[in-house]
Amino acid sequence: MDQIKEWGIILVAAVMLLIASGTQAFAKESLQIVPTPKVCMVTNMVFPRDQIRVDYGGKAYYGCCENCKKTLSEDAASRRAVDPVSGKSIDKASAVIAARADGSVIYFENKASFNRYVKSK
User: Cβ(79)–Cβ(56) under 8 Å?
Assistant: First the structure.
């Protein structure tokens, strides 16, 4: 009976350790830099193929549909993002864009800012 109790304690400890290590793995955000043409800059999602190019002010922006194309052409705010590290407003056309596992994206003013963000997570 004591041996069964010991195995039960070991099993509970092992399960708790697995849960704790799994929680840490989920807490670490996985980001991958993606090519700008793969990103809809209105929905802020990455897609497997290139999106519709929208030229504005000598720069290239991308949208996933005609509505997004119209939004990028008419709404200046849709062409801007805030770098999560510096807090600066940045132009999406020149940003370093990183995708999360769920396909949503984050915009960074440069690669150094992206690297600081990854190291902080």
Answer: yes
Which pLDDT tens digit goes with each residue over 23-66?
344 445 799 999 999 999 999 999 999 999 999 999 999 999 99
Q: Which residues contact 82 (CB under 8 A, 6 or more apart)?
A: 88, 89, 90, 107
Question: How much is the pTM?
Answer: 0.76
- Residue owning tokens 């190019």: 53
Percentage helix, strand, coil for the chain under 3-state DSSP, each rounded to 5: 45, 25, 30
Tokens of 100: 């999360």
Q: Where are the domains of the chain?
A: 1-29, 31-120
Q: How far is CA 94 from CA 31, 32, 120, in A?
A: 18, 17, 23
* CA distance linking residue 4 with residue 58, whole number of Å: 73
